Sequence to fold (382 residues):
Amino acid sequence: MLYQLLVAVFLFIFFGNLMLNLRMLRKPREDAVVPEPAPLVSVLVPARNEEANILTCLESLLRQDYPNFEIVVLDDNSVDGTAEIVRGVMARDERVRLIKGEALPEGWAGKPFACYQLAKQARGEWFLFVDADTVHEPSMLRCVMAEALEGRPWLLSGFPRQLACSVPEKVAMPLMYFIIMSWLPLWWSQRSEEPKPSLAIGQFLLFPREAYWKIGGHEAVKSRILEDVWLGAEVVRHGGRHEVVDLSSLVYCRMYRDVGGIWEGFVKWIYSVAGLSRLALVGLLIAGIVFCLAPFYWLWNAYFGTTAPADWRYIVLAQVVLLFLIRWMVDKRFKQPLLSTLLHPIAFSFLVGAGFYGGWREVVNQGVRWKERLYSRDSGVK
Fold:
């Protein structure tokens, strides 16, 4: 009985945290106006084997109604047609430049090194790093630059809409925002002008040029697989402010296209956590099972088991209702399908499985594979 009450109390806390986060998380204004002359923005796109995405990404960026920007793409030693596609775009629009990536140095993860090379080539007063699988509304750059010029953060990041086309994507991908919005107190980090820890989303990172180099750029996080999270930490460590906004109406991203890709992505995240602290990973997995998965088992046991005490059936039912309510509120805010909400137990079981597998790979030093590169403990990348 005490266990069930404690789980219910914590779920109410998660619900309250979600409400505060949703209230805090604002969207850039669609009618925003930037001052004249508008500062030059360098839109920086690292691309490794992105022939399926890069053309759509670049075409959406070239349609921006912001008056002063350049696009720099780094071909990170692709073996597909990525570079050829970018050259074709360059031939018809001088705002696009392509640079050839250098060989990956020892001790660097691939994406930080690609972004570091891009930053060295950028001419703008502002650096906007976006992933090659993102798609942007024409008003994106104007809206986010107006937000950044008004608030003057050292880093503006945000939550793009995660596109899900296949059933596995619809089931699994919305879990990211569910965990972030219900577990992390973003409202606390955003409510003050004082620097406080927050969460950066690597699909969209906007820096003033001076602030980027002041924190050391991507070189400061060169060995990090989750470089976006650590960039946010570096901003705070150097006394800067990090702002997070809702980009779901301006930026879209389809991260993975099949179950294998989703599994590989989840394992990558978990492996990075395990590399920092195995104890923290164990704690997170236990918390996830207890608060986000076990209530469904106890609900089944309460109503169909022969030994379940009748006095906590309604408590367990309340737990499950709260979980579905939290999932529905997050999914609705970020325009995710109802199917994702209804299949929450399956999605979370998938995440827990990836968690155990990623943790095991770190313990036995098998490393994690990402973008055709293997990162192990011996490489110094974690």
Summary: Residues 2-20+260-379 form one domain. The mean pLDDT is 91.
